[in-house]
Amino acid sequence: MPAVSEIIVRRFQKLEDQARAIQIIRTESSNIADHEQFYSWAMSALSAIQDAFGSDSPHYLAFQKEMSTIQNNYIDSKRLASIRGIFFGAKNDIDGGYVFDLQRSISGELFGDFVAVAKAALADGYHTVASVLACAALEDVLKRYAVSKDLQVDGKTMEDVVNALKSKGLVSGAQKTLLAAMPKVRNAAMHADWDKLTPQDAGSVIGYVEQFLLVHF
To answer: 13, 66, 79, 162 - which has most CB atoms within 10 Å?
Structure first.
């Protein structure tokens, strides 16, 4: 199954091909786009931009604004060029990976908040709570990182994800050694084997997540 990023790239590439294939009908007074081809492409393009960037993104708002100015289904060559130009700009950001960088940045901020709560719990003496929170954050962030690198980790255990990252050389050195011990802590935390957890375990997971976020998100 293709990674999400690969699916988005393919979707935008297909839409670019469709955009360039829109026929131009030449009349005595002007050149206009074929209505059926244009609207079939434009609706799909607008949906793709919304899915990738959100309905409050500059690409989406600009595309929607240009579409709203069309009157009587009259799309002259200049209007077509403007609308396609907005789409091509969105595709350039997709191809450059900027959308996925933004998504990783947002994820980093959210997980940072999650880790802050875990640290507070540990400071208050609740190391089991801190362990559960930190391990949940670590497992999710590792999967998101793996997906961003086009690894297939759906339904995989944390240990499987760790092994996949190591096999691709995406973690190495001290980070690799520390990560190898995390699944054991995670299993104890998530399976309620709390007597096997120590404040040091919680602290090590929290520290690892913080460092991982700093480096990769």
So the answer is: 162
Please count the residues of the chain: 217
Three-state DSSP class for 103?
helix
Contact by Cβ (8 Å): 8, 96 = no
| Pairwise CA distance, residues 141 & 67, whole Å | 39
H-helix or E-strand spanning residue 32: strand 31-33
Count CB-CB contacts under 10 A for residue 57.
Answer: 17
* pLDDT digit string, tens, across residues 172-204: 766 777 787 888 888 888 888 888 999 999 999
The three-class DSSP label of residue 146 is: helix
Non-local CB neighbours of 118 within 8 Å, separated by 6+ positions: 129, 130, 131, 133, 134, 137, 202, 206
Closest CA to 127 of 191, 201, 209: 201
Q: Return the amino acid letter for 9.
A: V
| Domains present along the chain, CATH in parentheses | 4-95 (no CATH), 100-216 (1.20.120)
**Cβ partners under 8 Å of residue 51, min gap 6:** 8
Give Cβ neighbours of residue 186 (< 8 Å, ≥ 6 apart): 135, 138, 139, 158, 205
Contacts of 165 (CB under 8 A, 6+ apart): 142, 145, 146, 149, 151, 171, 179
